[in-house]
Amino acid sequence: MRDMTMVTNAHTANGTSSIPLIPLTPEQELTTRIRLAQALQMSLEPSEILNLFYKHIQSVVSHSGILFKFGNSNNELKIGRECLHHCDYRLTTDEGYLGEIIFSRSKRFSEAELITLEFLLSSLIYPLRNAIRYQSAIRLALLDPLTMLGNRTALDTALRRELQMAERHHHELSLLMVDVDFFKKINDDYGHHRGDLVLCEIAKAIQSACRGSDITFRYGGEEFVVVLGKTDADGAKIIAERIRQHIAETHVKYNGKTIITTVSIGIATRQSNEKEHINDLFERADKALYMAKNSGRNCVVSSDDILVK
After folding, report:
1. What is the C-alpha separation between 33 and 25, in angstroms, rounded?
2. 6-22: per-residue pLDDT in tens?
3. The CATH number of 152-308 is which of 3.40.50.1100, 1.10.10.10, 3.30.70.270, 3.40.30.10?
4. Which residue among 118, 162, 222, 276 is the active-site one?
5. Strands of the 263-269 sheet, one edge to the other
6. Which residue stretches of the chain have pLDDT < 50?
7. Where does CATH 3.30.450.40 sit in the chain?
8. Beta bridge mates, 226
9. Which phi and psi (to 5°) does residue 197 adopt?
C-alpha cells in the first residue's frame, strides 16, 4: 500500500518530499488541475466528490472502480466494479488519517500510471476532507450529545418526511411519546450525573425494543419520541408495551443500590382519511401521555382510546 500524505503548503507521496515528475505535458497538467479543481468544488457530499473524481480521471488513467474506506468509521463507498489488479493509498492530511482509497482494473498499473494517480490524488484529498468534515458536522448538529439519538431538529425533519410519505402512499404512521416516571426524584436522590446515565440506558432500551425501521429521538429532558412508519394503532400499542416492559426490566446499579425506572407512553396514529399537521399528531400523543401519567404511570395509552371514551 502506498502512503499519500498531504500537508498544508507541501505535498509528499511515497515518502518523498515532493511529487515526482509525471508523464503529462505541462498543458495536460494544467488542464487536469483546473478541470478537477472546478469539478470537486461542486459538492460537499463525499460520495459525489468521489464519483466526480472517478469520472474526470478516466481520460488520464483508465480504471474500473474505486473503493474508499473512511478512516473514522467502518463505512465504505464503492464506485464502479472491483477487478483483479489494484493499487491502494492511505490518505493523510496534517490533521490525521482520512481513509484508504483503492483503484482497481483488469490489468496491472504501470509505474507511470501510479505516479499520475498520486498527482491526481493531490487534487482530491482536500475537497474530500472538507466534505467528510462538513457531513460530520451536520450529523453532530442533529444528534443529542448525551444519548446520541436524533435531537429535536432531526425529529422535525424526519417526521415531516415520514408524514409526506404516509400521505402519498396511504400508509399508516404512529408516534410514541415516552416520558420517564419520577425522573426528578432520580436526580434528587442520586445526582444529575447518575440521572444522565439512566437516560442513556433508557435510550438504549428503547432502541433495542424497537424494529430496525423505527426512529428514536430525544425530545428534551426525560422525554423521548419514537416514529413508527407503516404502523397502525394496534401495532403501535404492541411496540409501546414492549418498550415499557423492557425499560421496567432495565436496572442501573449505583453504590450497591439498584435504580429501577419506568416510563409512561402516549400514542397517536395518523388519521389516514385526513391530511394531518405534525402539531396535530404531537398534540394527540401528548394528551395520551398525560392520560397515562394520570392513570398511575408505567402504562401505555393511545389517543384512539381517549376518543372512544
Report:
1. 12
2. 433 333 333 333 333 34
3. 3.30.70.270
4. 222
5. 215-220, 223-229, 173-180, 263-269, 300-302
6. 6-22, 309
7. 2-141
8. 176, 216
9. -65, -35
The one-letter code for the residue type at 200 is C
Q: Known catalytic residue: 82?
A: no
Q: Look at residue 13 in the predicted model and tell me its pLDDT.
A: 34
SS3 per-residue string spanning the chain: CEEEEEECCEEEECCCCCCCCCCCCHHHHHHHHHHHHHHHCCCCCHHHHHHHHHHHCCCCCCCCEEEEEECCCCCEEEEECCCCEEEEEEEEECCEEEEEEEEEECCCCCHHHHHHHHHHHHHHHHHHHHHHHHHHHHHHHCECCCCCCECHHHHHHHHHHHHHHHHHHCCCEEEEEEEECCHHHHHHHHCHHHHHHHHHHHHHHHHHHCCCCCEEEEEECCEEEEEEECCCHHHHHHHHHHHHHHHHCCEEEECCEEEECCEEEEEEECCCCCCCCHHHHHHHHHHHHHHHHHCCCCCEEEHHHHHHC
pLDDT in tens, 175-194: 999 999 999 999 999 999 99
Four-CA torsion 268, 269, 274, 278, nearest 10 degrees: 50
Q: How far apart are CA 127 and CA 76, in angstroms?
A: 17
Q: What is the pLDDT of residue 8?
A: 33
> Domain spanning 2-141: which CATH class is it, in words?
alpha beta
Flag whether the pTM goes above 0.90.
no
Phi and psi dihedrals of 3, rounded to 5?
Answer: -105, 130
Integer Cα distance of 3 and 5 in angstroms? 6
